Amino acid sequence: MQCKKRAHSRIKNFRAAFDVFPDEVTAAANGRNPQPMGFMFQATLRVRREISRCSKFKHFGGQAMGGTEMAISFEIVQRPAQRITGHLWEGTFVEAADGAVRRLIAETQEHRRRAYPHDHSALIGLSWNDRSDGFRYLVGYVGEDDRTFTQPQHVDLPAMRLATTIHRPESSDVFVDYRKMLDWIAAEGHVVDTTHLHYREEYEAGFVSPSTSSLRLMVPIR
């Protein structure tokens, strides 16, 4: 009974945080594919590990966000040297699954809207998966910005090459899109480069959640 309650609680918290059910990551959760993905994928692994302890409830992980996988395309893009100004969050997978990062994104967008009512710049998310129980995630905008953030933090990035795809609400889900992009990177002979960051995500103004909004997924390569 306790195991059942814990599994249900994890799923409920994850669903509330990301508008998706934890799915499509069984292989990673079972340790067969340790490559981490974006912050939502990180949180998914934590949920899946919790659920996997309760064999009766493993079927909960099989619910997908969109139901039907759609073909997606990948490309290589360049980003110039940039200063990203924002707020750096650091926490555990559990905190992320409970909605910490999603709330930060929503709050940052609202502060930006108030500070710059006519600006529609993309919100940038940078991820560093450099701790065993969690990760760091900077949410911000390109350039200097002392109006959106009361105590702005900065990350200076060099010019970078990145593999990218657009996640759309009608496609399968973010986790599947990341997995396919990593497979494409390897098949094309590229190498993931985590020298400066692990993942970059770009959210258009008005982003709500992956189930209702598009976002750009990016992986640095060399």
Describe the structure.
Residues 18-36 and 51-67 have low confidence and may be disordered. Helices cover 32% and strands 27% of the residues. The chain has an eight-stranded antiparallel β-sheet with strand order 1-6-8-7-3-4-2-5. It is globular. It has helices at residues 2-18, 26-29, 39-52, 93-97, 100-115, 174-187; strands at 75-79, 82-92, 123-131, 134-142, 153-157, 160-167, 199-203, 215-221. The N and C termini lie far apart (49 Å). It has two domains: 2-62, no CATH class; 75-221, Alpha-Beta Barrel (Multidrug-efflux Transporter 1 Regulator Bmrr, Chain A). It has 222 residues and is α+β, with helices and mostly antiparallel strands. The protein is built from six helices and eight strands; from the N terminus they run H-H-H-E-E-H-H-E-E-E-E-H-E-E.
